[in-house]
Amino acid sequence: MNGTKKGAVKPMQMRYTDQVGKEQISDFFIRQWGDSKMVTSSGIYHCDMLDGAAIVNDDGEILGLLTYVILESECEIISLDSKIENHGIGSMLILEIETIARRRKFPIIKLITTNDNLHALGFYQKRGYRITDIYVDAVDKARKIKPDIPLYASNGIGIRDEILLEKHLHIEE
């Protein structure tokens, strides 16, 4: 045996999206969501074109990916996906974006998720993000632009509303 347990995750490393092939990023989004287009109340984004950070294994395979945009004095997370749950991938990506925001002196990080995404709501709140607004029926509006957004999540909850979460960062002077 080579010392690697069956099902163990290979060593991981952080890369920025400009260090990962665009085609590889596009393929990641297609496998995760069907395409790279994200429609939220803050805008329409092609996630494979955004700045971000990825966690890759030694083979260069993307295990997790976070994309973001800078809007005025705020950083908005547009997407956060991990292929492997409960291995710290999402947490590493969140810490990286918070480091980037602090370095660039952006005191607020925000993100939007949908009402059905209970896992994400718990994940972000455990990391200090707070619910600051709810956009009722926002997903119905998004479906007019991207009709393939499902009506129901795999947990049976109707996907209707967007929830805004924010974290205020301490910025060193």
Give a written overview of the molecule.
The protein has helices spanning 22-33, 89-103, 118-126, 138-145, and strands spanning 12-16, 37-40, 43-46, 51-57, 62-71, 74-82, 108-114, 130-135, 162-168. 25% of the residues lie in helices and 34% in strands. The protein starts with 11 loop residues before the first strand and ends in a 5-residue tail after the last strand. It is globular, with a radius of gyration of 16 Å. The relative contact order is 0.15. The protein has 173 residues and is of the alpha+beta class.
What is the topology, as strand order, of the major beta sheet? 1-4-5-6-7-9-8
> Structural class of the secondary elements?
alpha+beta
Shape: globular
Report the mean per-residue pLDDT as an integer: 91
Work out the radius of gyration.
Answer: 16 Å
Order of helices and strands: EHEEEEEHEHEHE
- Taken as a percent bin, the fraction of beta residues is 25-35%
Total strand count, please?
9
Report the uncertain regions. 1-6
Number of helices: 4
Helix content: 25-40%
Present the secondary structure layout:
Layout: E1 12-16, H1 22-33, E2 37-40, E3 43-46, E4 51-57, E5 62-71, E6 74-82, H2 89-103, E7 108-114, H3 118-126, E8 130-135, H4 138-145, E9 162-168
Parallel strand pairs: 6-7
Antiparallel strand pairs: 1-4, 2-3, 4-5, 5-6, 7-9, 8-9
Key attributes of the depicted protein:
173 residues; alpha+beta; disordered N terminus
Put the structure in a nutshell.
This protein has helices spanning 22-33, 89-103, 118-126, 138-145; strands spanning 12-16, 37-40, 43-46, 51-57, 62-71, 74-82, 108-114, 130-135, 162-168.
